[in-house]
Q: What sequence folds into this?
């Protein structure tokens, strides 16, 4: 069996993705230097999640994979989020 | 549903099968770091002030540099995959080599960063650490454990990419069969993903 | 292995001979047997430890061992039973041997990885034993390694933790292998809902193994860091949070309970239709309830921590979710009973074990609800009630599920028949001993007998004595059962390919199965439980 049917991502797309990621990194640093108080952490984590999504979609070719694999990845991240939330049901109310 | 290949002992593993195996493995890595993130979240909610203070000890410039280094290396490894799919073997090898160089730069930066911490006696178990407030001890403990475990993954990823480089050279990875290359790239992207979270959480806390 | 005559065709047991061909085989059936022999050996060792603990408790005060020895014994008993026997048990043994056959594949997706995880398992098991005998004291923390004690105890905790970590990794790789196998290697025509229910339960199990085990892996690493580097994540003296350890530990270890019980449920789900000669009642609900148990089971870890100082809100939350897990479990019980209803029930040893599985599992399940509700849990927490509860679930559930499985598939694996008479006798002794051993512990637990104590108040004398007698009977039953199987694996009469008239794929191939299972990959055109015989009621 070979990988004939695999999708080929162009060099240009890879480069554009890198540019977007670098811009997002810069925004992250700027946001934090601005001291937005309580929003800072939320912003930093949101930006990190966006970057993660971009890496998953393009660099890791998830956009071109079959549905099952995409569902798995989504489900796993969701599961982790739920675990954090449930843990904090304890810590938030203690 | 793929039912095309049932010969488990063939020389090449079916591409979809192999890739799914790799993704599942990445999930376990995610939960491995996930456990640390949970500890981080709990401790940070408990010791917000101390974390803020301790984080100023870290060099955000080195952190940012390493972020850029890893992002670029992620691109080069993705491009090398494009190259092998287009049968540009030389280019693919070159791009992996650049990725390895960037991994080296990352590790070098970490070496200086850790070295500086040790000069200040800021390492787990040291006398200086012992006298810090509880939250700061916790922060440095998490800092060393998280970046240390990440560094270990950089090292493993580097070894994996070196193997891929050699296999491209010997022709075992080629335009037809590049599952290992794909999986190696996936692993390297995971290393990048984890750093995407570590960087703001450890270096940019305000 | 077996005496090969010219008339027996080659099969996986004899197509290659010699120890080396077994130790390096990537054949899923051989790896499954390697697991089985190792696991049964460890099981017997840990069972002897359990017996010794019970003998210690036959009378108040010190009888045959000191308190420190007793602490080491219950720790070792727990570590071996949980991490080496029960968690890998069914999935690694019957999952390995029968998953590929039941979905019509020649092997698992990654045969070499499969062999590798077996050796990881052996390494972990070896480290676990080593931790008992290396210099220093054998660990005495209990299998849960609760901090701060595990961070301070002077015993070999680090080695034991490394062992648990390694065993966890072996379990992850097995789970990974099974998920990919089920996704990509099903025979042509076998859609998800034409897949037998044992593979369904393995699928749910594998996801838990894959996603929960890494959490305990990193947790154990953190405890190692505490002990070696004094970081103090969990040590209150350094500002750490011991309850956080319990969160992380149970995020894995509660789902691990479902790693133990789900494959056992899968095994008995195969047995009921075969011995009732009737399609399984409610195929889809059983299949989906496996996934539901796995999913909800992931979110109930906190019910181990009701008395650990969690917030009121999270106790309330975890208690509610715990009750929810009872629903899919009960669905399965009703479906098994309905499968037998109106069928031509043939009470052979596998069915006997499967029915006792329901009986014991139900007792374990109901007492689980007692523990799952906050108010009653506070009364019985850390008493013998808890010990009795989880032995009814783990031994009565997973253990009897395993015994049911081995009696069901023994003719397939070895191509030999065991003595039905002796199997029945063994079952009778085992079942009697089991209930005599564990049921009094419920009562003593409610009366306040704490767990993990080597001594007790004289008022518990009667219950403890009954329990000790039960332990001896139980052990006799185990020996009877195992001797019957071992003896007949060598001397038994030749078994036909399908002695129980089963309809799933493993019964359509010769006993023992040939090296690569199928000469030709079957094409599946109908569901897994269609019985063609005349007396089938539908």
A:
């Amino acid at each position: 069996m070979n990988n004939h049917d695999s999708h080929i991502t162009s060099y240009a797309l890879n480069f554009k993705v890198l540019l977007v990621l670098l811009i997002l990194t810069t925004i992250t640093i700027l946001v934090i230097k601005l001291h937005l108080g309580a929003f800072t952490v939320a912003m930093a984590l949101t930006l990190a999640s966006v970057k993660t999504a971009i890496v998953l979609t393009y660099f890791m070719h998830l956009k071109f994979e079959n549905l099952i694999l995409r569902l798995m990845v989504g489900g796993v991240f969701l599961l982790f989020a739920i675990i954090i939330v449930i843990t904090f049901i304890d810590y938030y109310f203690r | 549903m793929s039912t095309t290949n049932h010969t488990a002992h063939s020389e090449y593993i079916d591409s979809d099968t192999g890739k799914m195996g790799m993704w599942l493995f990445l999930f376990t890595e995610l939960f491995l770091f996930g456990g640390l993130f949970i500890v981080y979240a709990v401790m940070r909610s408990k010791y917000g002030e101390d974390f803020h203070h301790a984080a100023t000890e870290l060099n955000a410039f080195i952190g940012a540099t390493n972020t850029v280094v890893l992002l670029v290396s992620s691109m080069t490894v993705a491009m090398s995959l494009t190259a092998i799919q287009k049968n540009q073997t030389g280019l693919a090898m070159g791009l992996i080599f650049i990725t390895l160089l960037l991994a080296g730069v990352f590790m070098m930066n970490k070496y200086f960063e850790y070295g500086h911490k040790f000069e200040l006696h800021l390492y787990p178990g040291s006398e200086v650490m012992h006298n810090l407030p509880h939250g700061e001890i916790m922060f440095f403990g998490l800092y060393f454990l998280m970046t240390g475990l990440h560094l270990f993954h950089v090292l493993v990823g580097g070894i994996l990419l070196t193997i891929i480089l050699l296999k491209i050279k010997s022709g075992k990875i080629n335009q037809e069969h590049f599952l290992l290359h794909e999986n190696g790239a996936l692993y390297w992207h995971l290393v990048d993903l984890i750093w995407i979270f570590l960087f703001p959480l450890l270096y940019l806390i305000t | 292995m077996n005496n090969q005559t010219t008339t027996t065709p080659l099969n996986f047991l004899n197509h290659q001979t010699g120890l080396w061909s077994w130790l390096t085989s990537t054949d899923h059936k051989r790896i499954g047997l390697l697991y089985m022999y190792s696991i049964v050996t460890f099981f017997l060792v840990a069972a002897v430890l359990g017996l010794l603990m019970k003998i210690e408790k036959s009378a108040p005060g010190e009888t045959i061992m000191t308190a420190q020895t007793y602490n080491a014994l219950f720790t070792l008993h727990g570590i071996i039973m949980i991490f080496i026997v029960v968690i890998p048990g069914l999935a690694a043994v019957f999952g390995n041997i029968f998953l590929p056959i039941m979905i019509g594949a020649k092997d698992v997706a990654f045969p070499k990885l499969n062999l590798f995880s077996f050796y990881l398992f052996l390494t972990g098991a070896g480290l676990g034993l080593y931790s008992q005998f290396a210099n220093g004291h054998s660990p005495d923390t209990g299998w849960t390694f609760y901090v701060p004690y595990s961070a301070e105890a002077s015993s070999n905790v680090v080695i034991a933790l490394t062992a648990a970590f390694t065993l966890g990794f072996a379990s992850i790789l097995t789970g990974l292998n099974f998920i990919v196998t089920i996704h990509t290697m099903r025979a042509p025509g076998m859609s998800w809902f034409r897949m037998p229910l044992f593979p369904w339960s393995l699928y749910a199990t594998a996801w838990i193994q894959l996603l929960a085990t890494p959490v305990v892996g990193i947790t154990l690493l953190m405890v190692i860091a505490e002990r070696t580097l004094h970081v103090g994540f969990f040590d209150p003296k350094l500002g750490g949070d011991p309850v956080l350890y319990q969160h992380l530990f149970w995020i894995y270890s509660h789902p691990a309970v479902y790693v133990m019980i789900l494959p056992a449920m899968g095994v008995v789900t195969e047995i009921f239709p075969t011995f009732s000669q009737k399609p399984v009642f409610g195929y889809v609900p059983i299949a989906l309830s496996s996934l539901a148990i796995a999913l909800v089971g992931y979110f109930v870890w906190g019910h181990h921590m009701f008395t650990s100082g969690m917030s009121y809100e999270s106790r309330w939350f975890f208690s509610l979710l715990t009750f929810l897990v009872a629903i899919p479990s009960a669905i399965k019980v009703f479906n098994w009973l309905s499968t037998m209803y109106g069928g031509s029930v043939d009470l052979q040893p596998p069915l006997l074990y499967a029915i006792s599985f329901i009986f014991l599992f139900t007792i374990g399940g109901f007492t689980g609800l007692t523990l799952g509700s906050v108010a009653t849990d506070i009364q019985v927490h850390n008493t013998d009630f808890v010990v009795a509860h989880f032995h009814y679930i783990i031994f009565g559930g997973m253990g009897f599920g395993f015994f049911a499985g081995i009696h069901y598939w023994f003719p397939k694996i070895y191509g030999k028949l065991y003595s039905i008479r002796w199997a029945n006798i063994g079952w009778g002794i085992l079942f009697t001993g089991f209930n005599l051993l564990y049921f009094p512990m419920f009562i003593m637990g409610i009366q306040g007998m704490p767990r993990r104590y080597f001594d007790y108040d004289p008022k518990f004398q009667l219950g403890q004595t009954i329990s000790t007698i039960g332990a001896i009977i139980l052990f006799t039953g185990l020996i009877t059962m195992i001797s019957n199987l071992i003896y007949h694996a060598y001397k038994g009469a030749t078994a036909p390919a399908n002695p129980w008239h089963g309809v799933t794929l493993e019964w359509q191939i010769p006993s023992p199965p040939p090296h690569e299972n199928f000469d030709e990959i079957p094409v599946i055109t109908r569901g897994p439980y269609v019985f063609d015989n005349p007396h089938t009621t539908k």
In short: The domain at 19-508 of chain C is CATH 1.20.210.10 (Cytochrome C Oxidase; Chain A). Chain C touches chain B through 47 residues (CB under 8 Å).
